[in-house]
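Lab notebook page, bench 4
Experiment: in silico fold of construct C2
Operator: M.H.
Input chain length: 88 residues
Purpose: comparison with the prior construct
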Amino acid sequence: MKTLLIFLLTGILFVPQVFAQPSSLDEMMNHMRFTHSQLSNNIGDVIQLIKSNNTSEALTLLEGMDIKIKHMNTMFSDLVWEMSNKGH
């Protein structure tokens, strides 16, 4: 009986923690939001660099943004795949 009680109490303490963990979908969405905000900030930087004739720096920043956009497209495809597997 004592063992059963300990088992039940352990389950009560740890089960909410399992459900509180973010899902892979939540993590992907948060990462995509973060990447999107970085890209939004970089657009303003590129505009300023071009206005001040720092085209080589602007091109470097744009190349980095291109890499992030390709990464974001991959994340979006993964997100759609995950959601389709969950029946959304």
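Observations: The two ends are 44 Å apart (CA to CA). The chain has a mean pLDDT of 78.
Next step: discuss at group meeting.
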